[in-house]
Amino acid sequence: MGTLHFYAQEGPHDVAYVAGTKKALILLRDAIDRALSSGRSEFWTFASDGEGYAVIVHEVCDSLAARLAVPYMRDEYMERSREAIRPFDLDAAKSDLAGDDLPF
């Protein structure tokens, strides 16, 4: 399954990093391709300490993307809005929009 790490931005304009073995990066690429055709995909991978975790990839429409919580890790930049959509709420948010005939 490979090793895959995501390093989030500390704040606005910081660099985000993705680092992984070739096998894990191929799994990520394939998951992105599946999300582009079906709206969502997921796969299992590992951190370098051997702990496994799921990666979920969502394609979202522009109106939903505008409502996503910012991904910053430093406390002063973290999302404070209760209206922002967190990653773990994307399935429900996309389901709510399905009645609006919006793609993903």
The average pLDDT value, as a whole number, equals: 92
Q: What's the N-to-C terminus distance?
A: 28 Å
Low-confidence segments = none
Overall strand count = 4
By DSSP (H or I, 4+ residues per run), the number of helices equals 3
Structure description:
- There is one protein chain.
- This protein has 104 residues and is an alpha+beta fold.
- The chain has 3 helices and 4 strands; from the N terminus they run ββαββαα.
- It has helices at residues 22-38, 62-65, 90-98; strands at 4-7, 17-20, 40-46, 52-58.
- The strands form 2 sheets. Strands 1-2 form a two-stranded antiparallel ribbon. A two-stranded antiparallel sheet has the order 3-4.
- The model has no long low-confidence stretch (mean pLDDT 92).
